[in-house]
Amino acid sequence: MSDALRIAGETIGSRLWLGSSLYPSPQVMSEALQAAQPGFVTLSLRRQSAAQVQQQQQPDSHWSLLQSYVRDSGARLLPNTAGCYTAREAILLAQMARELFATDWIKLEVIGDDYSLQPHPLQLVEAARELIAQGFKVLPYCTDDLVLCRTLLELGCPAVMPWAAPIGTGKGLLNPWQLQTLRERLPDAVLVIDAGLGKPSQAMAALEMGFDAVLLNTAVARAQQPVAMAAAFRQAVDGGRQAYRAGLMCEQQQASPSTPVLGLPFWHQEGVL
Length: 273
Fold this sequence. Notes:
Blueprint: E1 5-7, E2 10-12, E3 16-19, H1 26-36, E4 40-44, H2 50-55, H3 62-73, E5 76-80, H4 87-101, E6 105-108, H5 121-133, E7 137-142, H6 146-155, E8 161-162, H7 176-185, E9 192-194, H8 200-208, E10 213-216, H9 218-221, H10 226-246
Parallel strand pairs: 3-4, 3-10, 4-5, 6-7, 7-8, 9-10
Antiparallel strand pairs: 1-2
Helix pairs in contact: 1-3, 1-10, 4-5, 5-6, 8-10
């Protein structure tokens, strides 16, 4: 049976999504993307000087290599509104990103706290409502709050992206109970873990839990060997999804023998002594 990931009527080629910042060099970024084969590649729209814009046109620049990868691989660009603190800022940046990158996809970020980089729920909902009305395919970065996620889905977001932990911390799935609750209470929604993952095992755990994809950046970009780490995350995501589809065994409180007692000496059999 097909296990394609579909969002907003489109098929996404991979359940691993990767950011394009923080790498030691543009070449390392390009090689990490090749190793990960992500379905989406995120990028930020920044204000740049004329000299910086000209530099980005060089064949070995960050933007040129990113364009080449997207063109050749079929991955999708996912511009984000990183650095925005109000709905108005996020809406303006999303409009600029659509014009520059020629895509309706947007990763919506509206930060409410400088220390944890926690999303601002009220501003996030306001921005999502307006951007959806303007025809954007909004993928909101949010907390694992059930009511917030459900509200964003009801507004028309084709997926929601709750955090596992604060951005860049690498702490992994800090609240697995709440994340599992999201999966159980929103069974038909596309749920993507965004932010806080630090190890391939954490990505595998998210996919085993039933999440549809994971988005990460720092865990690969800041690894000692980013290209090798990108490949490790790809394998972990594939393995986690396969395990989820295979059906994980239920946890039990008591030991259960995997070897039958038939044929064992009578004193080893339960209830004899």
